[in-house]
Design goal:
Strand content: 25-35%
Number of strands: 19
Shape: globular
Low-confidence stretches: none
Number of helices: 16
Mean pLDDT: 89
CATH class: Alpha Beta
Number of domains: 1
CATH topology: FAD/NAD(P)-binding domain
CATH superfamily: FAD/NAD(P)-binding domain
CATH architecture: 3-Layer(bba) Sandwich
Distance between the termini: 70 Å
């Protein structure tokens, strides 16, 4: 019979990714005496969605991602999501800068670098769209500094590799935002956990899988955990539980059995990258160049030719190519999708499937792609690409959220979704993009839902404003503060000044 260990904690965090790391450190800074226990099923932090090879790593600020600025029926551009995301990324930069300035994180150059963000399109229709998008975003201060051009020579100055071998009179257009970044969220996550482990009252457990969740009548939760390396079973009584287990969060939400989680389902989408092995090509490209997604494609599948810094070395990726797997995690089980289907979410999941036939068709086409098909897609961005310079790598696994709409029908969501118990004792993060880049804002929203009384205290308010100077304000509406904070965070994070419009 296996031994059973019992313990108590103020906070239990499930999953050792960027979300748990961010929430854990925010809470510890706000209330240093909290006892926090973190459980991770794998043997290392940030091995799933937060890992550099699994995560897009752009530092999503909506500078180049065209799916964040859809064209409306009347031809105008909807900028609301882009503005929300750029504000949220500025909040993340402020928090990371605070951590570096206080010595809680070292060597920021290990997790964040300056890399221009570009959008690149071709054809009359797409060119008109990109110009309208550029004009619409110029109304917002945080997008000032973006440049637009239809001049091939100018575009070549920004990203020479995408113009090499490009022939014909096809109309081209591009925007560039030099104030862009590449973020290695795997390294950032591990750095935060290394600091958390030095603090009193924090325990990080690897090879520990949460099996059951049950709420006591008086409010706290009983979390049952198996130590996969020893077989020992543990039971933790926790005042607050956060489930930040990436694709595994849905299954744990169902085990928690809170009314607020009823009807949620998940649609798994896998991905692959083409990784460049030619050092000369890698050095020649210095930008993140995003294009337009195919009809029916999920946002995580927006094609981009992407300069990355991974494990201290410059990399060049193209993709991702979408696929379908019934796993909810890269290291998960093929039974994950089947296990997630419950009486309460069958109808929403079927409804979402019926209303997303283009997505199903797109995924089937992606799964059926040959190596030549993948190279054909790459050559739309790099006309001179050679097959021998690229190898195929498996990317991360994402689970898109399915939930009920107002009519009880299923709708497929492509963002992130926080679900919390009415009493604030448990919260779950579902979904994917832009996730990691906006983790600080997402976790601040969660704190506002689940720690309402503490958040109202003068001590927490003062600390939040110390960590995030723009807390409670909109930077797009306070241009002087926006400029001051961008300069300050850029200096602390050791980012190059790439905001000037001249080369």
């Amino acid at each position: 019979m296996t031994t059973q260990h019992k313990s108590e904690a103020d906070v239990v965090l499930i999953g050792a990714g960027i979300m748990s790391a961010t929430l854990g450190l925010l809470l510890k800074e706000l209330q240093p005496n909290l006892k926090i226990e973190i459980f991770e099923r794998l043997d290392v932090a940030a091995a799933e969605s937060s890992d550099a090879w699994n995560n897009a790593g752009t530092g999503h600020a909506a500078f180049c991602e065209l799916n964040y600025t859809p064209e409306k029926g009347d031809g105008s551009i909807d900028t609301s999501k882009a503005v929300k995301i750029v504000e949220a990324f500025e909040v993340s930069r402020q928090f990371w800068s605070y951590l570096v300035e206080k010595g809680l994180l070292n060597n920021p150059e290990n997790f964040i670098k300056s890399v221009p963000h570009m959008s690149f399109v071709w054809g009359e229709k797409n060119t008109k769209y990109l110009k309208k998008r550029f004009d619409a975003l110029q109304e917002f201060h945080l997008f000032k500094g973006m440049e637009y051009s239809e001049d091939p020579e100018r575009i070549k100055e920004w990203a020479p590799l995408i113009m090499e071998g490009r022939k014909g009179a096809k109309k081209l257009a591009a925007t560039t935002m030099r104030f862009g970044t590449d973020v290695n969220f795997g390294e950032l996550t591990r750095s935060i956990f290394r600091h958390l482990e030095t603090l009193d009252g924090v325990q990080l457990h690897f090879n520990h899988e949460v099996r059951k969740l049950r709420q006591y009548n008086d409010g706290p939760w009983r979390v049952r955990v198996n130590d996969l390396s020893t077989g020992i079973k543990k039971r933790v009584k926790a005042k607050f539980v956060f489930i930040g287990a990436g694709g595994g969060s849905l299954l744990l939400l169902e085990k928690a059995n809170i009314p607020e989680g009823a009807g949620f389902g998940g649609f798994p989408v896998s991905g692959q990258w083409l990784r460049c092995t030619n050092d000369e090509l890698i050095e020649k490209h210095q930008a993140k160049v995003y294009g337009k997604a195919a009809v029916g494609a999920p946002p995580m599948s927006v094609p981009h030719i992407d300069t990355r810094m991974i494990d201290g070395k410059k990399a060049l990726l193209f993709g991702p190519y979408a696929g379908f797997s019934t796993k909810f995690l890269k290291s998960g089980s093929y039974l994950d999708l089947a296990k997630s289907i419950k009486p309460g979410n069958i109808k929403p999941m079927l409804g979402a499937g019926i209303s997303n036939i283009p997505l199903t068709k797109y995924l089937i086409e992606q799964v059926m792609q040959s190596p030549d098909d993948r190279m054909k897609a790459l050559r739309e961005y790099l006309p001179d690409a050679k097959k021998e310079d690229w190898v195929l790598e498996t990317a991360g696994q994402r689970v898109q959220v399915i939930k009920k709409d107002k009519n009880g029908k299923g709708v497929l969501e492509f963002g992130t979704e926080v679900v919390n118990a009415a009493d604030g004792s448990l919260a779950v993060l579902l979904g994917a993009s832009p996730g990691a880049s906006t983790a600080v804002s997402i976790m601040l929203d969660l704190i506002g839902r689940c720690f309402k009384e503490e958040l109202a205290s003068p001590e927490w308010q003062a600390k939040l404003k110390e960590m995030i100077p723009s807390y409670g304000q909109k930077l797009n509406e306070n241009t002087q503060l926006a400029d001051e904070l961008r300069h300050k965070t850029g200096t602390i994070l050791k980012l190059k000044d790439l905001t000037k419009s001249s080369i």
